[in-house]
Amino acid sequence: MKSVLVPVEEHAFIGAVLETALLFARKFGSYVEGVALGPDIAELAAADFSLSGVVIDERTRRDFLDHGRNFFESFMQANNVGRQSAVAAAPTFGWIGDGLLSDNGVGEYGRIFDLIVVGRPGPGPRQPRKSTFEAALFESGRPVLIAPPRSLETLGETIVIVWNGSTDTARTIAFAMPLLALAKDVVVLNVPGPRMPGPTEEQLAKSLRRHDVPARVVMIGEAAKSAGAALLETAAMLGADLLVKGGYTRSRLRQFIFGNVTSEILAHADVPVFMAH
User: Fold this and answer.
1) Same domain, 122 and 19
2) What is the mean pLDDT of residues 250-264?
3) Which of 108, 137, 126 is closest to 265 using CA atoms?
4) Structural domain total, the chain
5) 183 torsion bin: left (phi>0), alpha (psi -120 to 50), beta (else)
6) Of all helices (H) and strands (E), which one includes residue 172?
7) Closest to 183 measured CA to CA, from 274, 92, 120, 268
């Protein structure tokens, strides 16, 4: 997994997003590319849009771009990441051009990367926007790594797979195989409640072990708390530093069945979440 895209925007979690991206890049010697995330001027003009009372003109666009680039490059340089490296398997970084990308632009450009890293979305004005995450998930065809508000010291040593039998989760696991192969412990977690027809947790674990992935099954019993809360509590007890979870689908029926668990994870996960659609 050699190429990582990071949309850079001024929000409260941007430091954790870059730290999480770098943890991932160090595992694979990846190239990390930053891009300034901002309003699309053509879209805003068509909608007669202004941001916080400030019309988005060329000067404002330049401010978005310069601030994002300076923050990203300063972070990488402070962490001894270079644009080129003579060290084998060492991460490198770069920056894309002179333009801002909208949320949809991130989804489109992300199609040529192995991974897109975004912040855990939240409702506040200083939190990452859900629209960025959704564009990356639904429009790129690539996996998304959702960084928590505070980065961890490790990534992918103890991985919890949230298995519900769905095709989205199967696809996510396929994308995550390079991470699973490097993990010290992989737990296939049974989540109580409705699920799609498909292989059992033990069948999945057996399949993963054929690839030398150290997979085992942990069952979550019926609990008074919600399935999402029980899942996150169990993951914390296991010492997980990564969750692998299929992205919710646009089917209303499936979203009704699985959407609550996904929504709780997106709202409350304190570990990175690897997700694909």
Assistant:
1) yes
2) 59
3) 137
4) 2
5) beta
6) helix 167-182
7) 274
Torsion of CA 242, 121, 108, 172, to 10 degrees: 30
With a CB cutoff of 8 Å and minimum separation 6, the contacts of 214 are: 183, 184, 185, 186
Residue-wise pLDDT tens digits, 144-200: 999 999 999 999 999 999 998 888 999 999 999 999 999 999 999 987 666 778 899
Q: Answer yes or no: is 153 within a domain.
A: no
The string of pLDDT tens digits covering residues 29-60 is 999 999 999 865 544 444 444 444 445 567 77
- Written as one letter, the residue type at 216 is R
Residue after which a domain boundary falls, among 147, 181, 205: 147
Counting beta carbons within 10 angstroms of the beta carbon of residue 123, is it exposed (0 to 12), middle (13 to 18) or buried (19 or more)? exposed
Looking at the fold, whether 88 and 139 belong to one and the same domain comes out as yes
> Structural domain of residue 191, as residue ranges?
158-276
